[in-house]
Write a structure and sequence with these properties.
Number of helices: 17
Strand content: 15-25%
Helix content: 25-40%
Radius of gyration: 33 Å
Largest sheet: 5 strands, parallel
Distance between the termini: 101 Å
Number of strands: 17
Structural class: alpha/beta
């Protein structure tokens, strides 16, 4: 049959090009962002697709495959190429333009997103990095995970794990010489150790994003967020593995370089898609209106390959955001190749303003923005303390990495108790700052405190002691308020130019 296609014919986006033909078949080059594959397409089968799409112009590739399956002996070889066949049929029918129009951007459901797909929020501890992400993703689907030195690919993506399950056990009757059966035959439930694939954060987010993509309507695509806390505390190269390649996004925000999944992962993805009964990925990708066929820049069967789990490809609605404390001493430095695939947003230490539920700033009767107003027990202003202690840390370390952010310590009714101050703030200072760095000859003025003791005659007298961390606690393990107060006063009267002021 004459299918009205010739050598050299190509789809207008360059995805499909016919490079050779004979009496029975076409040899087709299918381009995928710089890489391509060759496919042999039966002319007889293509004729069926042309006839089908001539009668059903709005059908999807999967619709055609389902409708035509079984009509030909070569189905089992060719229907895996159903998307290629669809494009070629539409080329022959002159309808390809409506499927390759890339002029419409995909709107996100509920609101417009103008954020990087992959972004790391970094800064000193307590600057509100996680809070910033929580605020930006409010009302959206978010899956969170935290990296640590023992994190690896299996704890990030998923793997088979042993679990106790009830399984059916066939019981064969046991008969003794007397003819009495010791056990009734039949099928019984029995708990046994079985192995199941357990999905972790990445795979949950990946599947969630594709399902949202498939469920998209005229109002757009719902975003899916994967949030990684403390990304620099894990070995990123080990954790991401070959997923690293997916972080390269093309102009249409899909992964530029798809990868093949291993067998276990492929089977789990295929199972998850099949369980989503109304899941029609091709229909979502091919739908007209707000959601266009953005995947057309890739191999034309990727939609099927994604459903089968053979191919991994990040969709444009999957956002991967992370936090990084610059004070942490990373066991596994992040290499420059990994860093280049992320946008970086620095969260500066600042005296923050309060906000309303809608994200606008709260204002007073004069229209001025309202600051947070935390204090330390005893009436000490938290922001003033932070300014002073951060100046000291800067002098000690010549860096802002170890400084404290406004939300470093939790409050109750906007007050940081002495207990929290010592266990959280002082513990951090003693272990991460003072133990490593020093303030030359002036440090003695900062690390001293006055305490009252009784001599051998029972008379009380005041002595000056060296302030070590245990001195914050009494014999019963309770914080000594007077010691905490003295330390705060020494900090507040410290001359950040180098000497303690006379008071």
């Amino acid at each position: 049959m004459n299918t009205i296609l010739s050598i050299g014919d190509s789809s207008d986006n360059g995805q499909i090009t016919i490079i050779d033909e004979d009496r029975l078949c076409y040899l087709v080059k299918s381009t995928s962002r710089g890489a391509y594959g060759l496919r042999t397409i039966s002319k007889s089968l293509l004729a069926e697709y042309i006839d089908y799409f001539g009668k059903h112009p709005d059908a999807t590739a999967n619709d055609a495959r389902d409708a035509l399956s079984g009509l030909s002996e070569i189905d089992k070889f060719e229907y895996g190429y159903t998307s290629t066949l669809r494009v070629m049929a539409l080329m022959a029918l002159g309808q390809i333009e409506k499927y390759t129009d890339q002029s419409i951007k995909i709107p996100h459901k509920n609101r417009e997103f103008d954020f990087p797909l992959q972004q790391i929020f970094y800064g000193a501890p307590g600057t509100g990095k996680s809070h910033e992400i929580k605020k930006l993703t409010k009302g959206e689907s978010v899956i969170r995970t935290t990296f640590h030195p023992d994190s690896d690919y299996s704890t990030f993506v998923g793997c088979y794990k042993p679990t106790m399950d009830e399984v059916d056990t066939q019981v064969v009757p046991v008969v003794v010489k007397s003819g009495i059966s010791l056990q009734e035959p039949g099928t019984y439930k029995e708990k046994r150790i079985t192995y199941k694939f357990v999905m972790q954060a990445f795979l949950k987010a990946y599947l969630g994003a594709w399902k949202k993509w498939a469920d998209a309507g005229d109002d757009g695509v719902a975003p899916q967020f994967l949030v990684i806390e403390e990304i620099n505390r894990g070995n990123c190269a080990q954790i991401f593995g070959d997923l690293f390649q997916l972080l390269d996004r093309s102009d249409n925000n899909f992964s530029e370089y798809p990868i093949e999944a291993d067998t276990d992962l492929q089977q789990e993805i295929e199972r998850a898609f099949k369980e989503h009964k109304d899941y029609k990925l091709n229909k979502a990708i091919d739908a007209e209106g707000a959601v266009k066929d953005y995947i057309s820049n890739y191999d034309s069967t990727l939609s099927e390959d994604i459903q089968s789990g053979r191919i991994l490809l990040l969709p444009p609605n999957l956002y991967i955001w992370a936090t990084m404390n610059t004070s942490d001493q990373s066991l596994f430095p992040i290499d420059s190749a990994f860093k280049r695939r992320w946008e970086w947003k620095y969260i500066k230490i600042a005296w923050p303003y309060k906000k309303n539920e809608d994200g606008s700033f709260k204002t007073d009767e004069n229209g001025e923005k309202v600051h947070f107003n935390y204090s330390i027990e005893g009436g000490h202003d938290w922001w003033k303390f932070l300014q002073q202690i951060n100046a000291i840390i800067d002098k000690m370390t010549n860096s802002a990495d170890k400084q404290l952010g406004y939300f470093f310590a939790k409050t109750k009714d906007d007050v940081i108790s002495y207990e929290t101050f010592v266990s959280k703030v002082c513990f951090y200072l003693w272990n991460d700052i003072f133990k490593t760095y020093a303030l030359d000859e002036q440090q003695g003025d900062l690390f001293k405190f006055a305490k009252k003791i009784k001599d051998k005659d029972g008379n009380e007298k005041e002595v000056i002691g060296h302030l070590s961390f245990p001195e914050f606690y009494d014999g019963d393990g309770n914080v000594v308020p007077d010691v905490a107060r003295q330390f705060i006063e020494h900090v507040m009267t410290w001359n950040t130019e180098g000497k303690k002021e006379n008071s």
